[in-house]
Write a structure and sequence with these properties.
With about 230 residues, this protein is an alpha/beta fold. It has a four-stranded parallel beta sheet. It has a three-stranded parallel beta sheet with strand order 2-1-3, sandwiched between helices. Strand 6, helix 9 and strand 7 form a beta-alpha-beta unit. The two termini are about 15 Å apart. The mean pLDDT is about 95.
Length: about 230
């Protein structure tokens, strides 16, 4: 299956999606059909912060048309923060959409995670992954959401993580484990690999990107159908 990705939001997330999809397909010994279109991260940020869901959905719809023209069979948004207008995008989309949020609930439940702590954009943390977790309780560092969200946004735009920012994220995760009884910390922002890759924080970390990539890999290798992947049409 030919996978279409809406990238550029941010650049580091796009790169790591490509790297991990490529590695997963190579491990299967299969070629990969993939097309990536580039979205404007600044436009996304503006629409996200002002809750302009319809406007961003229209932006996505045009990009998905390009993916369809390139031969893609489905589309995915390479940003959990970028899913804020997912429901508005589905009816406009020329291709089935493969959510990065929907698979998370089943993933957490399958691993016996009763409570997860979230790190990501302000919207993702405040809405507890858009309220889509039914079997797992989500917590967030309520008093730090604004600071952490802004730091995450700045890191995503820059494509690099400073040592100061890394320490901020690692410590926020530790506090959610110690104070909020989180069984694991979820990297609910696809650029957080910049802060956590190669680190040993002393607690369980779940990278939401890996869950999404696993679904996309199963589609790309024709192991799963769009129906089994829960794609939205």
């Amino acid at each position: 299956m030919h996978i279409g990705l809406i990238g550029g939001i941010g650049v580091a997330a796009t790169v790591v999606y490509y790297q991990r999809l490529s590695a997963a397909m190579a491990a299967r010994g299969q070629p990969m059909e993939l097309t990536i279109v580039n979205a404007d991260v600044q436009e996304l940020i503006r629409n996200n912060l002002s809750d302009e869901r319809e406007a961003q959905a229209q932006v996505y719809a045009k990009l998905i048309e390009r993916l369809k023209s390139a031969g893609a069979d489905c589309a995915a948004i390479t940003s959990l923060g970028g899913h804020f207008c997912y429901d508005e995008t589905v009816p406009l989309s020329a291709l089935p959409l493969v959510s990065a949020v929907k698979p998370m609930d089943a993933y957490f439940a399958s691993r016996g995670l009763n409570t997860v702590g979230l790190l990501g954009t302000q919207v993702v943390m405040r809405t507890k992954l858009y309220g889509q977790l039914a079997r797992t309780r989500a917590v967030a560092p309520e008093e730090e959401i604004e600071v952490l969200g802004q730091t995450y946004q700045d890191m995503a735009v820059a494509g690099v993580c400073t040592e100061r920012d890394r320490a901020l994220f690692l410590e926020a995760g530790r506090r959610m484990v110690n104070d909020l009884n989180a069984d694991a910390i979820v990297l609910a922002g696809t650029d957080l690999n910049l802060a956590f890759d190669g680190q040993e924080p002393g607690y369980t970390v779940v990278d939401a990107l890996d869950v999404h990539v696993d679904v996309l890999t199963r589609l790309a290798s024709d192991e799963w159908t769009l129906e089994k992947a829960g794609a939205d049409r």
